[in-house]
Specification:
Number of helices: 10
Strand content: under 5%
Radius of gyration: 25 Å
Order of helices and strands: HHHHHHHHHH
Distance between the termini: 78 Å
Structural class: mainly alpha
Largest sheet: none
Length: about 220
Protein backbone atom coordinates (compact mmCIF):
# COMPACT_ATOMS: atom_id res chain seq x y z
CA UNK A 1 0.00 0.00 0.00
CA UNK A 2 2.79 2.41 0.92
CA UNK A 3 4.49 1.67 -2.40
CA UNK A 4 1.27 2.55 -4.23
CA UNK A 5 0.93 5.81 -2.32
CA UNK A 6 4.54 6.65 -3.15
CA UNK A 7 3.93 5.96 -6.83
CA UNK A 8 0.87 8.19 -6.83
CA UNK A 9 2.77 10.96 -5.07
CA UNK A 10 5.56 10.78 -7.63
CA UNK A 11 2.97 10.92 -10.41
CA UNK A 12 1.30 13.98 -8.87
CA UNK A 13 4.65 15.74 -8.53
CA UNK A 14 5.48 14.98 -12.15
CA UNK A 15 2.14 16.38 -13.31
CA UNK A 16 2.63 19.47 -11.15
CA UNK A 17 6.09 20.04 -12.57
CA UNK A 18 4.79 19.56 -16.11
CA UNK A 19 2.03 22.06 -15.45
CA UNK A 20 4.52 24.57 -14.05
CA UNK A 21 6.70 24.14 -17.12
CA UNK A 22 3.74 24.86 -19.38
CA UNK A 23 2.86 27.96 -17.36
CA UNK A 24 6.49 29.11 -17.39
CA UNK A 25 6.61 28.56 -21.16
CA UNK A 26 3.46 30.63 -21.71
CA UNK A 27 4.75 33.39 -19.45
CA UNK A 28 8.05 33.46 -21.32
CA UNK A 29 6.29 33.62 -24.69
CA UNK A 30 4.12 36.46 -23.39
CA UNK A 31 7.19 38.43 -22.27
CA UNK A 32 8.88 37.85 -25.61
CA UNK A 33 5.75 38.95 -27.48
CA UNK A 34 5.50 42.17 -25.45
CA UNK A 35 9.16 42.93 -26.09
CA UNK A 36 8.71 42.27 -29.80
CA UNK A 37 5.76 44.66 -29.94
CA UNK A 38 7.70 47.33 -28.05
CA UNK A 39 10.65 46.81 -30.40
CA UNK A 40 8.31 47.38 -33.33
CA UNK A 41 6.99 50.64 -31.89
CA UNK A 42 10.51 51.81 -31.07
CA UNK A 43 11.72 51.06 -34.60
CA UNK A 44 8.79 52.84 -36.27
CA UNK A 45 9.25 56.02 -34.22
CA UNK A 46 13.03 55.89 -34.69
CA UNK A 47 12.48 55.75 -38.46
CA UNK A 48 10.37 58.92 -38.35
CA UNK A 49 6.85 57.50 -38.08
CA UNK A 50 5.78 59.81 -35.27
CA UNK A 51 2.20 58.52 -35.01
CA UNK A 52 2.36 54.78 -35.64
CA UNK A 53 -1.01 53.06 -35.57
CA UNK A 54 -1.77 49.79 -33.85
CA UNK A 55 -2.00 48.19 -37.29
CA UNK A 56 1.49 49.39 -38.25
CA UNK A 57 2.93 48.20 -34.95
CA UNK A 58 1.28 44.80 -35.38
CA UNK A 59 2.55 44.45 -38.95
CA UNK A 60 6.11 45.38 -37.97
CA UNK A 61 6.03 42.94 -35.05
CA UNK A 62 4.65 40.18 -37.28
CA UNK A 63 1.44 39.78 -35.26
CA UNK A 64 -2.22 40.44 -35.79
CA UNK A 65 -3.76 43.55 -34.25
CA UNK A 66 -5.69 41.37 -31.81
CA UNK A 67 -2.42 40.04 -30.43
CA UNK A 68 -1.13 43.56 -29.80
CA UNK A 69 -4.22 44.48 -27.82
CA UNK A 70 -4.16 41.20 -25.95
CA UNK A 71 -0.82 42.25 -24.47
CA UNK A 72 -1.60 45.98 -24.21
CA UNK A 73 -5.09 47.28 -23.50
CA UNK A 74 -4.69 50.19 -25.92
CA UNK A 75 -2.10 52.50 -27.45
CA UNK A 76 -1.98 54.44 -24.19
CA UNK A 77 -0.76 51.30 -22.44
CA UNK A 78 1.81 50.78 -25.16
CA UNK A 79 3.11 54.34 -24.77
CA UNK A 80 3.37 53.81 -21.03
CA UNK A 81 5.50 50.70 -21.45
CA UNK A 82 7.67 52.44 -24.04
CA UNK A 83 8.24 55.36 -21.66
CA UNK A 84 9.49 52.95 -18.99
CA UNK A 85 11.90 51.41 -21.48
CA UNK A 86 13.17 54.79 -22.71
CA UNK A 87 13.85 56.09 -19.22
CA UNK A 88 16.32 53.28 -18.66
CA UNK A 89 17.95 53.23 -22.10
CA UNK A 90 18.02 56.74 -23.56
CA UNK A 91 19.69 58.73 -20.84
CA UNK A 92 23.39 58.82 -21.77
CA UNK A 93 25.90 57.59 -19.18
CA UNK A 94 27.27 61.06 -18.53
CA UNK A 95 29.11 61.95 -15.32
CA UNK A 96 27.38 63.81 -12.52
CA UNK A 97 26.54 67.43 -13.35
CA UNK A 98 29.17 70.05 -12.68
CA UNK A 99 27.99 71.95 -9.60
CA UNK A 100 31.13 73.94 -8.85
CA UNK A 101 33.49 76.11 -10.86
CA UNK A 102 32.93 79.14 -13.05
CA UNK A 103 29.51 80.00 -14.41
CA UNK A 104 30.87 79.55 -17.93
CA UNK A 105 32.06 76.03 -17.20
CA UNK A 106 28.77 75.08 -15.59
CA UNK A 107 26.81 76.48 -18.52
CA UNK A 108 28.91 74.44 -20.95
CA UNK A 109 28.44 71.28 -18.88
CA UNK A 110 24.68 71.72 -18.40
CA UNK A 111 24.13 72.35 -22.11
CA UNK A 112 26.33 69.42 -23.17
CA UNK A 113 24.41 66.98 -20.95
CA UNK A 114 21.08 68.27 -22.20
CA UNK A 115 22.16 68.09 -25.83
CA UNK A 116 23.29 64.47 -25.37
CA UNK A 117 19.82 63.58 -24.06
CA UNK A 118 17.95 65.50 -26.76
CA UNK A 119 19.99 63.99 -29.58
CA UNK A 120 19.32 60.45 -28.38
CA UNK A 121 15.65 61.00 -27.60
CA UNK A 122 14.63 63.40 -30.39
CA UNK A 123 12.43 61.00 -32.44
CA UNK A 124 10.52 59.97 -29.32
CA UNK A 125 10.14 63.53 -28.05
CA UNK A 126 8.81 64.61 -31.45
CA UNK A 127 6.41 61.67 -31.43
CA UNK A 128 5.19 62.57 -27.95
CA UNK A 129 4.63 66.18 -29.01
CA UNK A 130 2.48 65.06 -31.94
CA UNK A 131 0.38 62.73 -29.78
CA UNK A 132 -0.01 64.63 -26.50
CA UNK A 133 -3.31 66.15 -27.51
CA UNK A 134 -4.97 62.71 -27.39
CA UNK A 135 -2.93 61.02 -24.68
CA UNK A 136 -3.27 61.95 -21.02
CA UNK A 137 -0.21 59.88 -20.19
CA UNK A 138 2.01 61.60 -22.76
CA UNK A 139 0.79 65.03 -21.65
CA UNK A 140 1.64 64.17 -18.05
CA UNK A 141 5.04 62.81 -19.11
CA UNK A 142 5.80 66.07 -20.94
CA UNK A 143 4.87 68.12 -17.88
CA UNK A 144 7.12 65.95 -15.70
CA UNK A 145 10.04 66.29 -18.12
CA UNK A 146 9.66 70.08 -18.11
CA UNK A 147 9.72 70.10 -14.30
CA UNK A 148 12.72 67.77 -14.13
CA UNK A 149 14.71 69.79 -16.66
CA UNK A 150 13.92 73.02 -14.82
CA UNK A 151 15.07 71.59 -11.49
CA UNK A 152 18.25 70.22 -13.07
CA UNK A 153 19.05 73.58 -14.65
CA UNK A 154 18.51 75.54 -11.44
CA UNK A 155 20.62 73.04 -9.50
CA UNK A 156 23.53 73.46 -11.92
CA UNK A 157 23.00 77.19 -12.46
CA UNK A 158 21.61 78.80 -9.30
CA UNK A 159 22.43 82.12 -10.99
CA UNK A 160 19.38 81.50 -13.18
CA UNK A 161 17.16 81.34 -10.10
CA UNK A 162 18.43 84.77 -9.07
CA UNK A 163 17.82 86.29 -12.50
CA UNK A 164 14.75 88.39 -13.25
CA UNK A 165 11.52 86.53 -13.99
CA UNK A 166 11.60 87.21 -17.73
CA UNK A 167 15.24 86.10 -17.96
CA UNK A 168 14.43 82.85 -16.14
CA UNK A 169 11.67 82.16 -18.63
CA UNK A 170 14.01 82.93 -21.53
CA UNK A 171 16.68 80.62 -20.09
CA UNK A 172 14.20 77.79 -19.67
CA UNK A 173 12.90 78.28 -23.21
CA UNK A 174 16.39 78.35 -24.72
CA UNK A 175 17.34 75.09 -23.00
CA UNK A 176 14.12 73.28 -23.96
CA UNK A 177 13.84 70.46 -26.47
CA UNK A 178 11.53 72.62 -28.58
CA UNK A 179 14.25 75.26 -29.02
CA UNK A 180 16.86 72.57 -29.73
CA UNK A 181 14.63 70.92 -32.31
CA UNK A 182 14.05 74.28 -34.02
CA UNK A 183 17.78 74.91 -34.27
CA UNK A 184 18.51 71.42 -35.59
CA UNK A 185 15.49 70.88 -37.84
CA UNK A 186 14.18 74.22 -39.09
CA UNK A 187 17.35 76.29 -38.92
CA UNK A 188 19.38 73.27 -40.01
CA UNK A 189 22.32 73.85 -37.70
CA UNK A 190 24.78 71.06 -37.02
CA UNK A 191 25.01 69.73 -33.49
CA UNK A 192 28.18 71.61 -32.53
CA UNK A 193 26.99 74.94 -33.88
CA UNK A 194 23.55 74.59 -32.29
CA UNK A 195 25.20 73.75 -28.99
CA UNK A 196 27.37 76.87 -29.22
CA UNK A 197 24.25 78.97 -29.91
CA UNK A 198 22.55 77.68 -26.76
CA UNK A 199 25.69 78.21 -24.65
CA UNK A 200 26.22 81.75 -25.94
CA UNK A 201 22.57 82.66 -25.37
CA UNK A 202 22.75 81.46 -21.76
CA UNK A 203 25.97 83.42 -21.19
CA UNK A 204 24.31 86.53 -22.61
CA UNK A 205 21.20 86.06 -20.47
CA UNK A 206 23.29 85.55 -17.34
CA UNK A 207 25.73 88.35 -18.18
CA UNK A 208 28.70 86.02 -18.42
CA UNK A 209 31.60 87.01 -20.68
CA UNK A 210 33.21 84.49 -23.02
CA UNK A 211 36.38 84.66 -20.97
CA UNK A 212 34.59 83.19 -17.95
CA UNK A 213 34.46 79.83 -19.63
CA UNK A 214 37.68 77.88 -19.34
CA UNK A 215 36.46 75.14 -21.67
CA UNK A 216 36.48 72.04 -19.52
CA UNK A 217 35.11 70.03 -22.45
CA UNK A 218 32.98 67.78 -20.25
CA UNK A 219 30.20 65.93 -22.03
CA UNK A 220 31.61 66.59 -25.50
Amino acid sequence: MSALRGKRARGNRARDEEGEERLDGRALRSVRSRERILDALTELIGEGNLQPTGERVAARAGYGLRTVYRHFDDMEGLYRELQTRLESTLRPPNPEPLLEGSVGDRIADAVARRVALFERASPFLRSGASLRWRSTFLAESQAKMVRDLRQDLLRCLPEAARASAHRREAIELMTSFEAWDRLRTDQKLGRDRAQRVVEQTLRDLLGVGDGARRGSGRGR
